[in-house]
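Help wanted!
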Amino acid sequence: MANSIVLPGQMVSDKPARLPYCYVENNKTYATVLSLLSDDGRLVPLCGPYEPLLDDYVVSYVSEVRFSGYNININCPANAYLSGREVAQKLTVGDVLYARISAVDEIKSVELNDARLLRGGTIIEIAAAKVPRVIGKKNSMIGMISAATGCEIYVGRNGFIWVSSKGNQKLAADTIRMVEAQAHITGLTDRIKAHLDAHKAAASPAAQN
Amino acid sequence: MEKPQLIIDGKRADGRALDELRPIKITAHVLNGADGSALVEWGNNKVLAGVYGPRECIPRHDASPYRAVVRCRYTMAPFCSLEEHGRSGPNRRSHELSKVIREAFENVVISEAYPRTQIDVYMEVLQSDGGTRCAAITAAAVALADAGIPMKDLVCAVAVGKIDGLVAVDFSKDEDNYGESDMPIAIAPRNGDVLLFQMDGNLTREELSAAMEMAYKASAKISELQAAALKAVYDGPKKEAHLVLGDKFNSQ
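Answered by r_m:
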């Protein structure tokens, strides 16, 4: 990979370019966040808060019950709103949901729909920028973790990951955090596979006894 | 106390040349709980910076519909220096420094990206030996970048001034207390903008321009260190960012 790390204020192009995570001054383009500069000249942030986008699926929880709906925490500065019509049952504060972002406006007010209640699990929080690595190509990474641990896992684009209590939840959580910590280093899939296999080998003699 | 000799044989009391910085070590991403963090060890100074946000602005009436509110808090720990500082927490001096540091960062943080939110920057001086506000700004800039806050530049800061009639850079506590002039400056290295400029004592015009030149040279070195610290976080396998408890118990 020829990707290089760029820092805020670093020039990414000597021509004015309207790119995300960039600004233009004196006909030159500069980066605004710590990010990777890809070969095609685009920036991929390495850190930073979640930016809600339309049609993103997020893991979230109810933070406030209102008259006709719910305020939902989606790991982003602005609260999301879920109308009471979108869910069949009554929700309470702390209920975990897997939901789709149905609307975002310019001041980042978010509306949700297609919500699904998740019971009997816990939320792990990781950096939103690392979510694509946790999912992997065609769900390969998360599929591997889920199969090895026997956990049901829902990954939200916002950096919240729900892991069911059924299965080896701790191993799943540790592995996901390992993916987060090493997301930028190549050969990640092999290392994660080795990590899961090592735990499997360690656990199996104990299971026989 | 009697004034110590600050310049000995053309060198400073600690053996540095006039334009030489103290040894600086910057470590980014040192805290698990904060969105961004940095530890700056600058000579005998140790400053820890933590950034939270953008997050919901509280109280709500402080929020702006147009931009994020940047809040800075500079505090000195009660144990940070030889003299006792008494109770920790904000005092007149730390209020002033928090304000000027905030104004420096308001110039570079692209706050329009996050309306109705606040960005908190906490700087804790754990050990002090002169030049803590510069170390705090340097740490806060790295912490902000580590938090992924959009900024126009990575700010760095250094103090310049005059000791025993000679213009010099980066003062220790003695040089600050017994020198003739102390001038902390925060600089945006990309375009050379001066974001913070304070001065105690007096300088002539010629001394001022010599001091500014020295500050720009020193700031280039500091911003190199800042960049290296941020890149180091993503270069190798990062040390585990969380504490694993109960490993032994669970495997039984």
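OP: Thanks! One thing I noticed: The two ends of chain B are 64 Å apart (CA to CA).
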